[in-house]
From TrEMBL:
The gene is spc19. Keywords: Centromere, Chromosome, Cytoplasm, Cytoskeleton, Kinetochore, Nucleus. It holds the Pfam family DASH_Spc19. This is DASH complex subunit SPC19. GO terms for biological process: attachment of spindle microtubules to kinetochore.
Amino acid sequence: MAARRSQAASLASRQSYAPAGFRARDSLYPVPQGDFLKSLEDCVGATEACVGSISNAIDALAPGVEDLPRLSAIYRNMHYYVVVPEPKLDQHKASYAASLSPQIDQLIERAEQLVAAEGAGVGRLEERLAMLETARLPAFPAAPARPSAFADLDDKNEGDTRCRLDGVDTKGASMAQARKIGLLKKKREKLELEMARLQEQGA
């Protein structure tokens, strides 16, 4: 209250530069009743609080927007289009094809030579294997021709055939020879079963 009185006294004692006998113009607004300085102080306090809030907001936003010009320059997308005539493209394609064609042809030729060499090696190995098998395997006499598939088996010839195959000693033979003898035995058994089946059907 004392502060308000001192403020009012200072306003009253302030020198006036208005001419003598000058009377202030009456206000269009009604004079507030009571003490208006209290409301004025509240308004000034609220204004200062708003200014402080705005200042804090500016301080908080400043780090995020102060680098905006540089970021805008960085993230600016610029598209460049180069239009090349079709004849020029064909010319470059032909040039690349001409430069790469000899190398590709050379690689294809080398691959064909390697394939041919491998094929020749495989052929030689097969010939050598056939020669070894014919040279080392015992020669089995051919079975006598039978007049009919439904004829009765000759016990003597059948026993001789079994003896010829079963009597072969596979201990001293090579792996290829033993395998071939086993295949012949299986083939003989299969033929015997087929012959027995045919005889049963014919009977």
